[in-house]
Every structure is written in C-alpha cells, then in structure tokens.
Specification:
61% helix, 7 helices, 153 residues, mainly alpha, single chain, globular
C-alpha cells in the first residue's frame, strides 16, 4: 500500500507555487472496520514515517519535541525505554532499575483509560491488545528510523 505520497505531492506543489487555504474544502475518508490483526498491521506501517520525514524535512517541525510522532507516542516510547533501562540495571544488580521502571506508570495509566473505550471486549484484554500494539509501533518506528537514518519515534 502507498504511504505518504499525498504528503510528498502536497509538499512538492507547495514548493513550486505555493498553496492557498480553502476553508470550505471537505475531505471524505473511507472508514473500514477491521480486526485486531488489521490494527497490528497498521502499527507496522509506522515504519514509513521516518522515511517520510527524510523526504519532507518540514515535517520534523510537526514532531512532538522534534523526535516523537505524537505526544501519545512520546509517553509510550519513553516508558518502553525506561522499562528496558530498568531491566538492564536490575540485571546488572543495580537497585536503580526500580526508578527507571517508574516511567512506565503514565503509559499504563493511559492504556487503562483508553481500554475502557472499547466495550466490545473485556477491559483487561483490550489493555493487553493496546500494549502489544504500542510495542509493535515502537519496533516499527525504530526499524524505520534505522532504515531512513532519521530518528523518529
């Protein structure tokens, strides 16, 4: 599937002749229900964003703190980095690892609240599904960043 071609085209057109805001413009998106497997597939597609930032450097200004795809991703990614650091420190026998794991709490809290918005599945199941999806998204962004040689988490 194509990824980001509309952004690249829009950027190219803007550079060639500018653009104009059209307040009455409407965009219709086709919404297709999908399975959890489809949701995970979409998380894997996040790997395309670092290359898109490489192709359209102006997008970097839209990144949260210049590094994260969004504020939500920052909470997730910092929690995962903190957890990995905590585990590494604990494995090295340092008790400081507990402090690194504290960074996971905002992510867990956000997931728990978000999981309540899906009444079609038990909350704990949805919590786990969202956590797995976040892990897949993190791995996809790290992989895409390495391939594009542009850090975007």
């Amino acid at each position: 599937r194509a990824f980001g071609e509309d952004v690249v085209l829009g950027n190219t057109l803007a550079q060639l002749g500018g653009f104009q805001f059209a307040p009455d413009a409407k965009v219709h998106h086709r919404v297709m229900p999908g399975s959890y497997r489809d949701f995970i597939r979409e998380r894997r597609r996040l790997a395309g964003f670092p290359l898109l930032v490489r192709q359209v450097p102006q997008l970097r200004a839209r990144a949260y703190l210049g590094v994260f795809l969004s504020r939500r991703r920052a909470i997730t990614d910092l929690a995962l980095i903190g957890a990995a650091t905590g585990i590494a420190l604990a494995a090295a026998g340092l008790r400081l690892g507990v402090f690194a794991l504290v960074g996971v709490l905002p992510w867990i809290a956000r997931l728990w609240v978000e999981a309540s918005g899906y009444p079609e599945a038990p909350r704990l199941l949805r919590f786990v599904q969202l956590a797995v999806a976040d892990l897949v998204g993190f791995a996809a962004l790290v992989s895409g960043s390495l391939r594009a040689r542009r850090l975007l988490l």
